[in-house]
Design a protein that fits this description.
With 673 residues, the protein is an alpha+beta fold. 34% of the residues lie in helices and 21% in strands. Strand 6 and strand 7 form a beta hairpin.
Length: 673
């Protein structure tokens, strides 16, 4: 028996996403997976993400509070679940919630709990639609929850007496490690997707860390903070620190002059030739890895060289420039934001030791050794102890009240530093310097690392050094979290969506879709058609595409094409949405004259939750009263066209109208045409 509209109590249709839930065998103590979970690569039930459909066989036990407590122990950095909605099934709702919480703990972009689908025939198990970036990741979470929730429930029931908190934590860490393989774990990617979700910008992970934001001709692609406009030559220059410094100096800007050193002896000889203090840094790494600044002796140079050698074989040495460390972020030739990066350290209070001050600093919940938090812990390692000794202190010393104790030679956040916003203090000359350096290297987006005594004083007066140009800058959410939305706003027009319409009908839908495409072409827009009944299964303009035989794959192919101006989905079969929609939102739904009850009953309950503007139908269609009530329930406009002949023209008019517009045609429809 397939789950269709007549069998699911909320009138949703899954067509045939998986085997029917298995009701054979004795019920579990708590719950277990029923049937075969099935991936839904498209968008279903109004969800904004693809989902995994999982049948759930319930046992007699409810959801004990101790399970939530156990999961909080297993995932200490994750947020706990929200209160259960009144009247909801606690077991099924908690499974939805913890799937989202655990995947977010692994830095996967999950934003909603999902849906519970119940069968009218109570003999069949309910089904969960669990949102997830990839079905394999969601299935890992579900199977982990199945194993551990039943195991902990058995302990609650007295069937087991052993405690296994350590094993639970270990397996939770292993689960997170597995999940993190499914999405890039750099600082930027998740925050860009978070910003896109908040701005209602469609996105998808293309693989290899590449993200697409927007659709068709409106789309842009990014790899962390690389954009599709970042040139290969420009990024290569920025990644080569010696080449960057040389180009800056040749271009008349204050760039560094690093020298390559092959061993510790060569490093010491070079340092003594150019004069102390000096800086040792890898030639090909970012994030402050292997960097040691302010080195004042041969011993310090040797130690720093050996430390850098652990990360790379290409090591540079340059003269140290005394100044404060600033990061200036530039996009398309304009300064976006500026921060000062303060080296990791503590401020004395005259009471506590250095060790105690460090411990207190590390208790800040924003600090942890993982990328899940914006700041990193301070460590009292050899570098910190060397700097303490140079200041006449050790870890047991009590610094005087107000004394700043520096524990790092560099100010990178990844090394325990912290950022301070200084955007309103940047001197106009320093702003122009950062913008000119970005243009010189040919970058569209860059982070300019500037050493200068004071960002409020012109570099022409005080002197300055551009020590590095980052072609793929990382943004810290403590002071620069707003940049993700701002950058997307610069890259995209509005929400990055192209106009879209779904045409429902049997044979008439094909001619309607063609007419709409021709009218759009006359207006200078190239439409992509998916689900075409006759001829190629998907085409852009008149050009056919080679796509799988399902609406989701065809529509997604069109959304990936950079010359698709509008999307037309032709839906002529009740199972057309078996894989889901190719996009999370459809602007309009057009009901053709030959759209019968079987098609409408199967498709509308799935389509209307994703529709964001209007439903268009001819006045003579028998479905008008029912559709009118449904549109009111979903907050949609009902556009009633007097005759069948005008449906295509009406559809084009609606597609070309701004989203906020309220054309007179819609006004008449709402007035009861």
């Amino acid at each position: 028996m397939n789950p269709d509209m007549s069998d699911i109590s909320d009138t949703s249709s899954l067509s045939n996403p998986s085997n029917p839930p298995d009701t054979s065998g004795p019920p579990p103590l708590f719950w277990r997976i029923s049937g075969n979970p099935a991936a839904l690569p498209g968008f279903r039930q109004g969800l904004r993400q693809p989902a995994l459909a999982v049948g759930v066989r319930r046992g007699a036990a409810g959801w004990p509070d101790s399970l939530d407590a156990a999961w909080r122990i297993a995932f200490p950095h994750a947020a706990g679940p929200e209160p259960l909605p009144p009247g909801s099934d606690p077991v099924l709702m908690r499974l939805l919630q913890w799937n989202r919480i655990i995947q977010r703990a692994a830095r996967l972009p999950i934003y909603e709990d999902g849906h519970i689908l119940r069968w009218r025939d109570k003999r069949h198990d309910p089904m969960l639609l669990l949102p997830g970036l990839e079905p394999q990741a969601t299935l890992l979470v579900v199977r982990w929850l199945e194993r551990w929730s039943n195991r902990l429930a058995a302990r609650e029931a007295g069937d087991a007496v052993e405690r296994f908190d350590d094993e639970l934590r270990t397996e939770a860490e292993h689960l997170l490690t597995q999940l993190k393989r499914h999405f890039p774990q750099n600082t930027n990617s998740l925050h860009f997707v978070d910003a896109a979700h908040a701005l209602d910008i469609p996105w998808q992970h293309l693989g290899g860390g590449i993200l697409q934001f927007g659709q068709g001709r409106q789309a842009r692609r990014m790899d962390s903070s690389f954009t599709d406009a970042t040139g290969n030559i420009a990024s290569r220059i920025a990644r080569h620190k010696a080449l960057t410094g040389n180009l800056l100096r040749r271009g008349g800007l204050p760039g560094s002059a690093p020298l390559s050193v092959t061993d510790a002896d060569a490093a010491v000889a070079t340092a003594e030739r150019i004069g102390y203090p000096v800086v040792i840094k890898p030639a090909d790494l970012d994030g402050g890895v292997g960097v040691a600044a302010g080195l004042g002796s041969a011993d310090e140079v040797r130690q720093a060289f050996e430390a850098a050698r652990k990360h790379t074989q290409e090591i540079l040495l340059e003269k140290h420039f005394h100044g404060r460390d600033y990061r200036l972020s530039v996009l398309n030739g304009r300064l976006l934001w500026a921060i000062e990066r303060v080296p990791g350290g503590v401020r004395g209070d005259g009471v506590h030791t250095v060790q105690e001050l460090v411990d207190e600093t590390n208790r800040d919940p924003r600090r942890s050794p993982t990328a899940a938090t914006p700041l990193y812990p301070l460590e009292l390692d050899d570098e910190a102890k060397t700097l303490l000794a140079a200041a006449g202190l050790d870890i047991d010393s009590v610094p005087a009240s107000g004394r700043q104790v520096t524990l790092r030679r560099t100010a990178n956040v990844s090394r325990g530093g912290y950022p301070v916003a200084v955007n309103d203090q940047v001197h106009a000359d320093n702003r122009a310097l950062a913008e000119r350096a970005t243009r010189l290297l040919g970058l569209d987006l860059a982070g300019i690392d500037l050493l200068i005594p004071d960002i409020a004083t012109s570099w022409r007066e005080s002197g300055a050094l551009i020590c590095e140009v980052n072609g793929q800058p990382q943004f810290n959410v403590v002071t620069a979290g707003h940049l993700y939305a701002e950058i997307l706003g610069h890259l995209l027009h509005g929400d990055g969506r192209i106009p879209s319409i779904a045409v429902l009908g049997r044979s008439a839908a094909g001619s309607l879709a063609d007419d709409i495409a021709q009218h759009l072409a006359a207006a200078g827009l190239q439409a992509g058609l998916a689900g075409v009944a006759n001829g190629p299964n998907a085409r852009i303009g008149a050009e056919p595409l080679a796509c799988p035989q399902n609406l989701h794959a065809q529509g997604n192919a069109l959304l990936l094409q950079p010359d698709t101006d509008a999307l037309i989905l032709q839906i002529a079969d009740p199972v057309a949405l078996e894989q889901g929609l190719p996009c999370d939102r459809i602007d309009h739904v057009l009901i053709a004259a030959d759209a019968d009850d079987a098609l409408l009953n199967a498709i509308l309950p799935q389509l209307l939750p994703a529709c964001r503007r209007s439903v268009i139908v001819a006045a003579a269609h028998a479905c008008v009263p029912r559709v009118q009530a449904t549109c009111a329930r979903h907050g949609l406009r009902l556009v009633i066209e007097p005759g069948d002949q005008g449906l295509a023209v009406c559809a084009v008019h609606m597609l070309l109208a701004p989203a906020a517009a309220s054309p007179a045609r819609e006004g008449r429809a709402q007035a009861g045409e």
